[in-house]
Amino acid sequence: MGLDYDEQLIAEAQSNAERAGIAAELICADLREMPFEDDSFDVVIDFGTLYHVARADDGLREVVRVLAPGGLFVHETRISQLLSHPVRARGRTIPWDTETALRRKRWAVLWATRTTF
Question: What is the CATH number for 72?
Answer without folding.
Answer: 3.40.50.150
